[in-house]
Design goal:
420 residues; four-stranded antiparallel beta sheet; 12 strands
């Protein structure tokens, strides 16, 4: 059996943990640049706030309903996620961290387990961190996902649902719409709905050959999962990424090359750190730039360029050089730019890098420099105490976070204070 543990309204729950006055109010958390709603409390859902709703179109509504609005605080959320996952790993030997707020637990090596009691114990253990969770248990990952969703929607008191009988499995299959099946994207959902499928039960009842013909091998794996036959293995180790992208919108429109180059330099440094963390190097770099497509009064432009590197690298210094060359190629004066980004492509293990005959870069020196920088910045809690001059100290490009809560768990100067 497999358990899926999912944090309830995770971002909102993180905000409420250190701000008890929010627990009886509707709360929403906004995306980067305080754009759209990405997390809602149950109270916010009850008054009709939709996921993805633009905040600037709802200001009067939010004020009228006394809705607490918070900017996304990923430092806080990541810290609390680590605590939740540590609790789960202490209770189970095989854990797959699926996302920042979800984890699969393999229970197959505990055959005599009372699963209902085990799930309840898990909820209490995680509650000690301060985050409420729901638990779904079933024979496959797909069914565990459905069981978890069923628990959230219909068993809010207990927050647990175990699919250990045919009747329970059928009940959840009938309850789950095809668009809500884990692994069914918009295209497959549209296909199934056009063919008259409404629920997961309807899909499970068709012959396997029909699924293979219309939904290929991926659909057949899903069909098997719905029938309790595991086809999606546990991944206890995070696989290396095949490419790395860092791209963010600016806090305000930028029209000068120097401002955009500074933003790109910072995104490049972030991407390079991620590259080194997984022990890889990249052989190609792509840089793109774009204006705000919804500002119809502005001239519009989206442009990109891709560069082949003579030698694969993970050095921030080298990648900064190529990023600057790339942005020089695609830059156009007279535009108000909203976003810039960098993609590191064709990643290979650092141990497999082939140097060129005419390569004159002192790679040993660069490696030592990167290790020293990463070590210093990691010791500082992830802050960039040491960085390249090209990254600058400007603020124009930084994300708009006008409603950002303190980083209670990672910054001493923002730690929670209690007055007695």
């Amino acid at each position: 059996m497999i358990a899926l543990v999912d944090c309830n309204n995770f971002y909102v729950s993180c905000e409420r943990l250190f701000q008890p006055d929010l627990r009886s109010r509707p709360v929403v958390v906004l995306s980067n640049n305080d754009g759209c709603v990405i997390s809602r409390s149950e109270e916010a859902k009850a008054i009709g706030i939709e996921m993805g709703a633009p905040a600037f179109l709802m200001e009067d509504f939010l004020t009228a309903h006394n809705v607490a609005v918070r900017s996304s605080n990923y430092t806080l959320y990541g810290s609390l996620s680590d605590r939740v996952m540590s609790v789960l790993q202490a209770h189970c030997g095989t854990v797959e961290v699926y996302s920042i707020d979800e984890a699969f637990l393999y229970l197959g090596d505990m055959p005599h387990l009372n699963q209902e009691r085990y799930a309840a114990d898990l909820r209490r253990a995680v509650a000690a961190v301060g985050i409420p969770v729901s638990v779904g248990i079933a024979a496959t990952k797909t069914l565990a996902k459905m069981a978890n969703r069923f628990a959230k929607k219909t068993k809010k008191e207990t927050g647990v649902h175990v699919l250990d009988t045919r009747e329970k499995i059928h009940e959840v299959l009938e309850y789950t719409q095809v668009a809500d099946i884990w692994g069914v994207g918009p295209q497959y959902a549209s296909l199934l709905q056009r063919r008259g499928f409404r629920t997961a039960a309807a899909l499970a009842n068709v012959p396997a050959e029909w699924v293979r013909k219309n939904m290929t091998t991926q659909g057949l794996r899903l069909w098997n999962e719905l029938h309790g036959m595991p086809c999606i293995e546990m991944e206890t180790e995070v696989p290396d990424k095949k490419n790395i992208c860092v791209a963010r919108s600016f806090g305000q429109l930028l029209s000068t090359r120097e401002d955009v180059k500074e933003a790109l330099a910072n995104y490049t440094a972030i991407a390079a750190r991620k590259l080194r963390k997984q022990g890889s190097c990249c052989r190609r770099v792509q840089v793109f730039i774009q204006t705000a497509q919804y500002r119809l009064q502005d001239r519009q432009l989206r442009h990109s360029t891709t560069m082949e590197l003579p030698v694969a690298t993970a050095s921030t210094a080298e990648l900064l050089h190529y990023a600057e060359v790339a942005v020089q190629r695609i830059w156009r004066d007279g535009y108000n730019f909203k976003k810039v980004g960098i993609l590191l492509l064709d990643l290979i293990p650092a141990s497999q890098v082939q140097t060129g005959l005419f390569d004159q870069v002192d790679r040993s020196r660069n490696d030592k420099l990167m290790k020293a920088m990463d070590s210093i910045n990691q010791a500082a809690g992830g802050k960039e105490l040491v960085k390249f001059a090209a990254q600058g100290y400007g603020r124009k490009w930084r994300l708009r976070q006008e409603r950002l809560s303190p980083r209670y768990t990672t910054r001493l100067d923002e730690i929670l204070t209690i007055k007695i």
